[in-house]
Amino acid sequence: MKINHDPSERLNELFQRQKCWMIANLTETLCYATISIRRFLKELGYWRSFTHNNKWYTLRSIPKFDGNGLWFYQDIGFSRHGSLKQTISHFVDHSLEGLPASELANLIKHPCHALLNQMVKCKQINRFKALGHFIYLSADRTKYDHQFASLRGTLASQARSQQLTPQAAIQVFAEAIKNPEASCEQLAALTAQKNIIASPDAIACLFGKHGIKKN
Fold first, then answer.
1. What is the tens place of the pLDDT at every residue in 112-128?
2. Where are the domains of the chain?
3. Strand partners for 73
4. pTM of the model
5. Is it true that domain 81-157 has CATH number 1.10.8.60?
6. What's the CATH number of domain 1-80, 1.20.1440.230, 3.90.180.10, 3.30.470.20, 1.10.10.10?
7. Which terminal CB of the chain, N or C, has fewer other CB atoms within 10 Å?
């Protein structure tokens, strides 16, 4: 029987038997140093997982990516877009009106609240609070403006049939006290600056319930 001594071919054979490997397991199985394993992987072409702290590897030829550019092997996720952070940025940037954390988590099958907070702090994405939860939007100003305009239109139509959240109502009253001559439209813009959505119609409804006249 012919024994294959070519390390790259042996590496390729390992991936045919098991689709994903960690570097430590490859070094142990092939008896090569980590730096050599990385060189062999580079020669063959590889993907690193965006889950599990990028610890899993697979060959470029193996994944069958879905329409979102994602491929999962058991609970290990790989993305055409790169790391978890790069993948989140891609989906947020290409969304019509931003994405809530729950939708992102369902999409990538991975919790991402902590990373989203970190990315907001580093100004890699933007965040807007609407109807009690955060919507994540692009850090690119032009994309953000388009997303925000679309988001406000959607939320405004939803708000017509919904009461304002207590937090939104408090903010509206606070702005009304500071700006007594402001119209409902102006108050909606002022609350938006505090990352809270309150449509002019919802504000007018709020004031009507409390017997407050406002243009």
1. 889 999 999 999 999 98
2. 1-80, 81-157, 160-209
3. 76
4. 0.70
5. no
6. 1.10.10.10
7. N
